[in-house]
Write a structure and sequence with these properties.
Elements lengths: L6 H5 L5 H7 L6 H9 L7 H11 L5 H16 L5
Length: 82
């Protein structure tokens, strides 16, 4: 896969949305579905995502995730929809 450009791309590094949710300590995938819908990840979940990726041997660079998060923040600051 190319560098992730959306939350959907980040989550897709795992076998399923539920597997991603389980890996970061969430019960169920409802929150993950919402993050994908709004293309945003709350800051408190960034470290658990990096840790889960390392634990699973998934190549996920901090700069790639920060690019996705920063793009979302930029849209929000400009009043644009995600």
């Amino acid at each position: 896969m190319d560098k992730p450009s959306s939350v959907r791309d980040i989550v897709a590094l795992w076998p399923s949305r539920l597997a991603f949710a389980d890996a970061i300590g969430l019960a169920g995938k409802a929150r993950v579905d919402k993050w994908i819908q709004v293309n945003s990840i709350p800051a408190p979940f960034l470290y658990p995502i990096f840790q889960a990726a390392m634990d699973a041997g998934i190549a996920l660079a901090a700069e790639d995730v920060m690019r996705v998060v920063a793009a979302d923040a930029g849209r929000a600051n400009r009043g644009e929809a995600a």
